[in-house]
Amino acid sequence: MTLLSVRDLTKHFPITGGVMRRVIGAVRAVDGISFDVAQGETLGLVGESGCGKTTAGRAILRLIEPTSGEIFFDGTDVRALAKEPLRKLRRKMQIVFQDPFSSLNPRMTVGASVREGLTIHKLAEGSAADARVRQLLEEVGLRAEHATRYPHEFSGGQRQRVGIARALAVEPKFIVCDEPVSALDVSVQAQVINLLQDLQRAHGLAYLFIAHDLSVVEHIADRVAVMYLGRIVELARADELYAMPLMPYTQALLSAIPVPDPDAKRERIVLRGDVPSPANPPSGCPFHPRCQHPQKDAACSAIVPPLELKEPNHWAACIKQLPTRISWEEQQSAGATRPPERIVPVRATA
Amino acid sequence: MLAIRWLCAAALIAALCAALRRFAHGSGRTSRARVVLARYASHPSAVIALVALIVLYVVSAFSPWLATHDPIEILAQALANHPPSRELLFGTDFAGRDVFSRVLYGTRISLSVALLATSISVVLGTAYGATAGFIGGTLDTVMMRLVDAFLSIPRIVLLIAIGTLWAPLSITSLILILGLTAWFGTSRLVRAEVLSLKEREMVAAARALGARDLAIVRRHLLPNVLSPVIVAATLGVAGVIVNEAALSFLGIGIPDPTPSLGNIIHDGTPYLATAWWVALFPGIVLVITALACNLAGDGLRDAMDPRQVDR
Fold first, then answer.
1. Are residues A218 and A255 located together in one domain of the fold?
2. Chain A residues within an 8 Å CB radius of B311
């Protein structure tokens, strides 16, 4: 059952200039993304830094006000909500942050931090709240007596657990995990991911798991969406995406994952150049200046590729990967010289 | 008798310092307050300043008890401008009043005025700066340009203008005027802190939990701007004491015959060549007070430096 439904979500940050602070342009941080998250499902959202994945996560919770688009959560139109009903709905959608240092108030004990949500939504008071805080701390793998300590007394991994307990306190159905393990040591990363999976099973939580590390997402996500320059360029079941990436960008990302075998034969696709500025994105396909697809031609810089179904439940945005709605005639009229052809590189395995 | 009283005061101070040290070096896990105290204790000048402030405060609090004479009573016409002696520790002024007792009471009044005026300015400056910083936008611009306008007027000129317009000032109105002209700097400081704090993820987390704006300001922003505000307040006390003394010195501060450090100096200046003791002793106390406030403030700033504590 669909829990969260996002349609054509955009967030443009205005660029102002001159004495009068006129708007002279916009950073298209999120540029029309659509996806669904089912109850109890994990949707991974991956992409390079600056591709808009964090902005997307926050715009869904309206921590950043979206520019346009639709967000439906559990049948409620989130964008249409006034301040007070939105405040009430927030109990159902929570967020865990990347930085375990700045996401906790250094002046509050972790018990007080976890308790905050209980007080705000009047879920428990007095000794009942104390008991609930203790239970939550134990559930995320901390000890009940940690409640009276301050954040600076904890390690990064422990603080991240506190952040998870804080989100869990209000019994949400959906949690945006905004790179929850990127700031942690690899050994601690696995512990926190396992914790998130245990909690998902116990509470039937749905996650939007934002990450820039594909190997982390492979482990936790049911489906994966790949973002590039504010757009979703590929969306598929995790195993399918890793086995047969169709968007050349995804192919390049996957080829960059280190394989723990020095003798493994692998073909690395090295992307040239930097991510273009989202204030001035390339015409046509946003990825075309860096694309390694052998059939790339002038049409790629003229036609914006739609996110289209290439395989059952596998969407990708590329007019050169077959099948495509953009006919060869149409591509030729946009200057195409090379016909579309399905190219899938062989992924090295250990 | 006097010696016993002084001994009692000294014992009290010693006990206070010992308690402070025990708290700072106490066993168990480290709380933030302990870390700050331990770091403060490692600054010798700041510790001396703190002790000096405590001494000044205790001595002035017990001034009715420690004074040898009535501070406004004229002892005898013949005793005018009497030099310091065993009986009259700091001598007498032109009217024949005991300078030692006047300095004790004067310190008490100057300190009270400074503390109350600083409290007013801290509360006002924090509220103003937090409002501007948190709401932002046009309101912020308007509010801060207003502060800039006030800051562009030298404070002492502003005080003299107000003081002469409403002369003679009662102590209450003097406190109000000193407090109402001292908050501009604090509001700027608080605004800057709030601007950076509100972008922290802990504020986003509170908002995601459904916290109201007022709760975010109260629970997450204000407690975190406290350290720089305390430092600013400590430094502010020194400024207010000096300003109050300057006003009293100019004859538009605390009305005669009530003693304050400023007007005792004012009374002594015409006789500086013949009766140097009248202006010298309150002058020394004034310098010590202002210096101690500044040093303690600097020590606090170093001890509370968030770059050293937070992570």
1. no
2. 101, 152
